[in-house]
Amino acid sequence: MNRYYKLTLRAGNRQAFIDRFAVSYDTVSYQKIPDIKQRTLVLWGENDQLIPVEIAYNFHRDLPNDTIVVLKNLGHVPMEEDWQKSIQPVLDFLECSDLNYLP
User: Is the pTM of this model over 0.85?
Assistant: First the structure.
């Protein structure tokens, strides 16, 4: 909490936050999601108050090659709220991935 608070006080951060929400985004980008063929991990906090968990299920529906993990009792930043609960699905996902392309 202290770190987030201190970051909001840094010069320019408040304006950057405001500017970010003033940007117009391509509202049809979501239509390209089914074209993503790469294996994808959708990791979501069940209690996300910023982006509802229903969006995770939309990704799951639209991604042809995904793994979805919804973490109970966690919110918008599950990897910071409970890194131990969040890391295991990531490790499981990576162990199942084809890592032959790594040097």
Answer: no
